[in-house]
Structure formats: C-alpha cells, structure tokens
C-alpha cells in the first residue's frame, strides 16, 4: 500500500501505519534533522525494519511517533576510536566493574531520567522502554554497564543489526562512568566484527571519541557494503 503524506511547513513526510512500509530514507526532509515519517508503532518488526534501513524513532511524550534519517549522519568506525589522556588514566585505574547485558531495563530507565538542556522532557517513554526491552529479549540490543560498590553508576546501549550498531543513549551517576562504558562497548563491538557505529547526531562528546559526520548517501553505501559482506 502506498504512503499517505503529511504536509509540513518544511515539506511533506510520509504517514506510516500497520499496512505501509517506510519510504526510502533519501526522501527525508533536510530540516528538521531528517524527518522521514510520522505514525506507525513500536512493534518488534517495525523497529527492525526501521533500523535495517537506517531509520530510527525519536519523539516526545504526547507526540505521534516520528522517524528520522539525518543528513549528515554522525558515525564512529571502531578503528578510529580516540581516547583523551585523562580518560586513559581513568581506564587504567579500573574504578568500575564493567558488565554487558545484565541489567538492560535498569540502563534504559536510567537514561530516561537524564536531564538534557536541549529537551523539555524525556523521549524515552514507558512505551519506548517496553519496546526496546522486547528488542533486547530478541537479541538485538547491547548494553554496557559500569558498576561501583554493587551500584549501577553508568551505562549505554544501542541496537545491533548484523555488523552495524545504532547507538541510542547513555547515562552516568559517577563522573566518567558513561565514557568508560562506551569505550568498553566499542571494543566489545569491534571484537564482534561490527564495522560501523551509528551515533545519529553530532555532539562534542562523540566528536572527542573520533566520531565524524558523513553524508546520508555515504551512510547508505557503507550500510549496504557491511550488510553484503555479512551475507557473503
């Protein structure tokens, strides 16, 4: 079934529901930040189809589901990871016990509580938490956790589809805990053969780790190359 469309001041975006698929991601608006589609649901099948096409949901409570494909796209190639000298010293001290995938609901719930200056509230709603927990149960989410004195003090998570990882969010309750979790996560993903980590949007923190912007077209090419290499 063909997509219906919403007309916005900046252009038109597709309407998705239970019977329609996402349009190609190159049809996303340039502003704001690559909005591609509105509506649909957060079912396991819908989320997997979105991520496989380089599309992700991001919306505030009370809004319809908004689906995005930014241009440019912030990505980190695992071999390009950079560490500040101060972070190297923190890693050597081994202040945290790092675990993987032992308390995902606690990690995503903690991420939902983070106060962010650019947002009035959280985009990680109760429905989002349940949807990503379902993704986790299906084996498509990886999270890294930092523990200290038997307390969860930092972590990060994202969606892994084949050899591509889509980073989602992080939190810390102790200084550097989220950074340490992220570094260990990148190494973990590299050991698993992941070729590209999608960071979605440009931030100073991600830039400091060596992430860089590429065009949507280049992102799509690399996504196809990595997917093809996995099939072969």
What labels describe this entry?
7 helices; 7-stranded mixed sheet; 232 residues
Q: Assembly state here?
A: single chain
Helical amount among residues, as a percent range?
25-40%
Q: How are the strands ordered across the major sheet?
A: 7-8-9-10-11-6-12
- Total helices: the number is 7
* β-strand number: 12
Residue ranges: pLDDT <50 for 5 or more in a row? Answer: none
- Rg (CA only): 18 Å
What is the residue-mean pLDDT, rounded to a whole number? 92
> What is the first-to-last residue Cα distance?
32 Å
Sum up the overall morphology in one term: globular
What does this protein structure show overall?
Helix content is 32%, strand content 28%. It is built from 7 helices and 12 strands. The chain starts with a strand and ends with a helix. The model has no long low-confidence stretch (mean pLDDT 92). With 232 residues, it is an alpha+beta fold. The chain has helices at residues 44-52, 85-93, 104-112, 126-137, 177-191, 204-208, 216-231; strands at 4-8, 11-16, 35-39, 56-57, 66-68, 73-76, 97-100, 141-148, 151-161, 164-172, 196-200, 212-214. Helix 5 links the parallel strand 10 (164-172) and strand 11 (196-200). Strands 7-8-9-10-11-6-12 form a 7-stranded mixed sheet, with helices on both faces. It is globular, with a radius of gyration of 18 Å.
């Amino acid at each position: 079934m063909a997509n219906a469309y919403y007309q916005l001041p900046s252009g038109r975006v597709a309407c998705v529901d239970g019977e329609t698929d996402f349009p190609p991601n190159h049809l996303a608006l340039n502003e704001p930040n690559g909005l591609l589609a509105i509506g649909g649901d957060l079912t396991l099948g819908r989320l997997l189809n979105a991520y496989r096409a380089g599309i992700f949901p991001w919306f505030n409570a009370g809004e319809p589901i908004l689906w995005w494909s930014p241009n440019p796209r912030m990505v980190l190639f695992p071999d390009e990871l950079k560490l500040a000298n101060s972070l190297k010293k923190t890693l050597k001290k081994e202040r945290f016990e790092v675990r993987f995938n032992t308390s995902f609901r606690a990690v995503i719930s903690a991420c939902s509580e983070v106060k962010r200056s650019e947002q009035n509230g959280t985009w990680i709603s109760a429905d989002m938490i349940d949807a990503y927990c379902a993704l986790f149960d299906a084996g498509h989410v990886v999270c890294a956790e930092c523990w200290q004195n038997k307390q969860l003090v930092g972590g990060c998570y994202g969606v892994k589809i084949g050899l591509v990882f889509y980073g989602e969010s992080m939190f810390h309750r102790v200084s550097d805990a989220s950074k340490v979790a992220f570094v260990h996560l990148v190494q973990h993903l590299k050991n698993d053969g992941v070729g590209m980590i999608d960071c979605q949007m440009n931030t100073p923190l991600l830039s400091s780790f060596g992430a860089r912007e590429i065009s949507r077209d280049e992102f799509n090419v690399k996504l196809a190359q990595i997917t093809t290499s996995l099939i072969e």
